[in-house]
Amino acid sequence: MTPSSEVGHPFFARVWPVVVTHETAAVRALRRENLAGLSGRVLEVGAGVGTNFANYPAAVDQVVAVEPEPRFAAQARAAAAAAPVPVVVMGDTAEGFSDGEPFDAVVCSLVLCSVRDPAGVLRRLHSLLRPGGQLRYLEHVASAGARGRLQRFADATLWPRLFGNCHTHRDTERSIVDAGFEVDTSRREWTLPFWAPLPVSELALGRARRP
C-alpha cells in the first residue's frame, strides 16, 4: 500500500533505532505498563520501529499501527511479523488515517511530542475511539523549574530538527483534556537522574477515555 502521507526524518531515522535498543529498564517497564490489560482492536499512533509490538497482551484482537516515516515503517513491518498478536502497519499520519470501525483503544508512546498539531491529532484520535474507549499514553511532558527552562531552550534551537520534530516542553495532558478526553489515571516518572543534561527525562504515563 502506498502511504497517504510520508514524513521524512533521515537523521532521526538512523538515530532512533539505536536509542530504543538501549532504552533504560525503567522506560521498558513503562512501555509494558502502558499496554497492560488492553483488549479488542487497538490503534497505535507513531509506532516507530515497532518497539511496543512484543508487549501487546493476548486479549488484543488486532493492532493497526500508523507510522508515516518510511524507514521506520519498514522496520515496524518486520517487527509485526514476530508480534504475539496480529499487527498491520500503515504508512499514514494520525491526521490522514481513516477507518470505518471504531477502536477499543488508542496507544501513544513518545509521539505526541513530535506531531505538528497535537490538538488536531488528539481530536482525531478521540473521533476514532468508540464511546468508553481508552487512550493510553506514555509521553514526554513539560517539566518545571530549571528542567523546564532547558526544555524551552532545546525546543527553540536544534532539538526538534535533530530528533524528528520532538518538542519537549508541551503540556500534553492539558491537550488531552482539551480534546474531550477524561483522564482516569496519570503519574509522572523520571527515567534519568535529575542531573542528567537531557530535556526528556520526565514522562507522563496515563489512561484517558472518550466519554
UniProtKB/TrEMBL annotation:
GO terms (BP aspect): methylation
CDD domains: AdoMet_MTases
Family matches, as Pfam families: Methyltransf_11
Keyword Transferase among UniProt keywords: yes
UniProt-recorded Gene Ontology molecular function terms: S-adenosylmethionine-dependent methyltransferase activity
Keywords, comma-separated and alphabetical: Methyltransferase, Transferase
All residue ranges annotated as the Methyltransferase type domain in the record: 43-135
Name of this protein: SAM-dependent methyltransferase
Species in which this protein is naturally found: Mycobacterium heidelbergense
